[in-house]
Amino acid sequence: MPLDLNRMTIRWTAIIQGCLVVTMAILSMACAFTQTEDVLPGTDGKVLAFGVIKVEQAGPYFRWDWTHVRFLDFVNVQTDHEIREYVDASEDAFVLRLLPGTYRLVRIQVSDGPYRAESYLDATFTVHAESVNYLGTWNFAIDSPRTQRMVKLNIESDQPDWETFQEKIPELRGLPLKIALPQPVSEQSRLFSVNPYPNVRYFKRR
After folding, report:
1. How far apart are CA 113 and CA 61, in angstroms?
2. Radius of gyration (C-alpha) of the chain in whole angstroms
3. Phi-psi region of 149 (alpha: psi -120 to 50; beta: other; left: phi over 0)
4. Residue 83 and residue 70: Cα distance in Å, rounded?
5. For the chain, what is the HEC assignment?
6. CA 20 to 30 Å from 159, out of 11, 54, 66, 202?
7. Residue in 80, 51, 53, 46 with CA at minimum distance from that of residue 67
8. pLDDT tens digits, residue range 38-60?
9. Which residues in 84-110 are b (16+ Cβ under 10 Å) and which e?
10. Verdict on whether the full-model pTM lies above 0.90
11. Under a CB-based contact definition with an 8 Å cutoff, are residues 136 and 157 in contact?
C-alpha cells in the first residue's frame, strides 16, 4: 500500500505543535514560580525593599499609550554593582531584593507605547538588614512629548498598607518595617529619546 505523505506530514505537524504547547505551559509555570521566589527573603543575605510608583502626565498628551516607568537603574555605592528593576505597568509598586547597604537611583526609562526616553537621577537610600525596607511613594511628573522634556521626582514619606502586603506574602509576617526614604526627596532632570524608534517614517530623525 503506498504511503500517504501528505497525511503523515499533517499528523507529525500536529504532534510537534502539541509538544510545543505543553513545553510553553511548563516554562510559564516555572517562570511564575521563580518570580514569586524572588520576592521572598532568602538565605543569601538579601532583604526586601519596596516602594510605590505614581505617574502624572504634565501637559497635553496626544499619543495612544499613556506614559509609564519602564525600568529603574540602581548602583550599590560600596561595590558599584548595578541593578536594573523592570516595573510592571499594571502595578503601582516595585519590589527589590538587595544586600544591606547604600544604593543610588541613577537612571530611569519611561515608555509611551513604542516611544522611549531616559533620564539620569541621583537619589540615595540605605537598605537595613533583618527588616523590610519601605522606600516611600515615588511621584513622577512627566512632561508630554516635546523637544525639551522634563521629569520631576517627588518622594513622599507615607505609611504603607503593611497588613495588606503581608497578606499577599505570608512569609513576611513578623518582620519589622523600616522606612528607608531616599535623599533628596525632590529633584528633576531632562528626558532624552532613545532607540529603538518606532518604524514610522515621519517620526525618524536624521
Report:
1. 13
2. 22
3. beta
4. 14
5. CCCCHHHHHHHHHHHHHHHHHHHHHHHHHHHHHHHHHHHCCCCCCCEEEEEEEEEEEECCCCCCCCCEEEEEEEEECCCCCEEEEECCCCCCEEEEEECCEEEEEEEEEEEECCEEEEEEEEEEEEECCCCEEEEEEEEEEEECCCCCEEEEEEEECCCCCHHHHHHHCHHHCCCCEEECCCECCEEEEEEEEECCCCCCCCCCCC
6. 66
7. 53
8. 444 555 788 889 888 998 887 66
9. ebebeeeeeebbbbbebeebbbebbbb
10. no
11. yes
- Residue 41 to residues 5, 8, 48, 65, 175: CA-CA distances in angstroms? 56, 52, 6, 35, 10
pLDDT in tens, 137-162: 999 998 887 778 889 999 998 877 77
For cell 533620564, what's the residue?
119
Determine the Cα–Cα distance for residues 152 and 93; give it in Å rounded to an integer.
18
d(CA 178, CA 49) in angstroms, rounded, equals 9
